[in-house]
Write a structure and sequence with these properties.
Blueprint (H helix, E strand, L loop, with lengths): L1 E6 L3 H11 L5 E7 L2 H11 L3 E4 L8 H11 L5 E5 L4 H10 L3 E4 L4 H12 L4 E2 L1 H19 L6 H11 L4 H8 L3 H15 L4 H10 L10
Parallel strand pairs: 1-2, 1-3, 3-4, 4-5, 5-6
């Protein structure tokens, strides 16, 4: 039996879920919580196999409840079941530890399928939510890439370094002193969080920084 805890501040929603889930031979609803505090308390006392968690609830919202539950019981899956599909709700919910995110307009049979899939170790999210998460990941990668932006001149030095040139050759190519090149290389190592020229060159190739800025 899959033991389910339902957390939602709307009685009608909880009752509807309970009535339908009780028709499933392999699912048992073991408790209901009308706010996040109750959800955390019942999660500890009932030890359900899975929690259906609403997002917006009084006293403690679904995100806060999910974070507390997953921190204490990392193997207790939480499925967000909500009306919100915007990133301001989706991303914090998943970061809090939810392993699934479905909208309340989901067909009952599909909800049962989702519950069973999660119990099999899968992460299931609504297609709309998937788009939001992919966009968030892309933005995070972009931020990470630009976390230590190089100046145009540092990009030029890095591009020359990637070609295997010595400090003297780089200085000659860019019409600067070797001392200036050494300073730029030191700054590059710090900003890119690398230890040597090889690591810097690999970073440059990976992130498309091998052409330099063209500054003279």
């Amino acid at each position: 039996m899959i033991r389910v805890l339902i957390a939602d501040d709307h009685h009608v929603v909880r009752r509807g879920l309970m009535v339908f889930l009780k028709t499933q031979k392999d699912i048992e609803v073991v408790g209901e919580a009308k706010n996040g505090i109750e959800a955390v308390e019942l999660a500890e006392s009932l030890q359900p196999d899975i929690i259906l968690m609403d997002l917006v609830m009084p006293e403690l919202d679904g995100i806060g409840a999910t974070k507390r539950i997953t921190e204490k019981f990392p193997n207790m899956p939480v499925l967000m079941l909500t009306s919100f599909s915007d990133r301001d709700h989706v991303v914090p919910a998943m970061e809090a530890g939810a392993v699934g995110y479905q909208l309340k307009d989901i067909e009952p049979d599909d909800l049962v399928i989702t519950i069973r899939q999660i119990m099999n170790g899968e992460r299931i999210v609504h297609p709309t939510v998937t788009d939001q998460l992919e966009q968030n990941v892309a933005e995070q990668e972009s931020l990470a890439h630009n976390r230590h932006p190089l100046t145009p001149r540092e990009q030029d030095v890095l591009a020359e370094l990637t070609k295997g040139k010595s400090n003297r050759e780089i200085a000659s190519s860019l019409f600067v002193t070797e001392k200036t090149v050494k300073t730029h290389i030191s700054n590059i190592f710090t900003k890119l969080e690398v230890q040597d020229r090889t690591q810097a060159a690999l970073y440059a190739v990976k992130h498309g920084l091998t052409e330099g800025s063209g500054v003279q």
